[in-house]
Amino acid sequence: MTELQENPVLVARKGAVMTVTLNRPHVKNAMNAAMVDGLIAAFDAAAADDTVRALVLKGAGGCFSAGGDLKGMGMDGRDAIWAGNRRFGEMLEVAQAFPKPLVAVLEGAALGGGFGLACVADVAIAHAGCRFGMPEVTVGLVPAQIAPFVLARIGLTATRRLALTGQMIDGTEAKALGLVHHVEADADGLEARLAATLAGILKAAPGANRATKALLMKLAPGVDAPALDHAADLFADALMGPEGQEGTAAFRERRKASWQEDVQ
């Protein structure tokens, strides 16, 4: 299947539950502009449809998302870099404000932007072996748009550790940090947990659920647009700078970046 033929976001419906699947499995569901646009459209459609009572977010091919697609990133100039990064932040804002229960099923990897999406889920269900991380600094970039959402999810101390080291953690540690709510050992466990979660959601009155989520989001610390605008500035500057150019080149060439050293 070629890039032109693929649909980067698949939407399916079963009863009152809409399932949205990130669908670029050949690149571990790395997010490009088309996927981001497709996710925004799916969230908007589900929010506007009164017959949808829950949205499930998954990744195709046994992987949630490896993060942003670095292929071609930075080729269109600073304004395009800024706009693309800020558009991803807009998608996270839309997901955060989604008025109905949002359930994420996390397998394989949830890195970078995938990590950010996990942080806006009302219920996050992870495979024990799923890898979570914020690897942006290892390629000379800044976790710009996801940082405020990660910070709101797991707090400053845990965010600093993950963001400044690029360290990967598994589902068990993600649960200990409060990033995910349930950890399962295998695919059958994931499906059973998802079914139980949806059964609970569908027992709730939809209007009461919507009002309760709105109340909770109003009480919680928010992520404001100016902060995300500033984050896009930082991302654009980093990508166009020498570290970003070297780091993304090293990633594409599958080699170490010039600053990476082994611990003695």
Instruction: Give unreliable regions as ranges.
Output: none
What integer is the average pLDDT? 94
Rough shape? globular
Counting DSSP E segments of at least 2 residues, the number of strands comes to 8
CATH fold-level assignment? 2-enoyl-CoA Hydratase, Chain A, domain 1
The structure class reads alpha/beta
CATH superfamily: 2-enoyl-CoA Hydratase, Chain A, domain 1
H/E topology pattern: EEHEHEEHEEHHHEHHHH
Radius of gyration equals 18 Å
How much helicity do the residues have? 40-55%
The CATH architecture comes to Alpha-Beta Complex
First CA to last CA: what distance? 45 Å
Question: According to CATH, what is the class?
Answer: Alpha Beta
The major pleated sheet works out as: 6 strands, mixed
Report the β-strand fraction as a percent range: 5-15%
Strand order of the largest sheet: 1-2-3-4-6-8
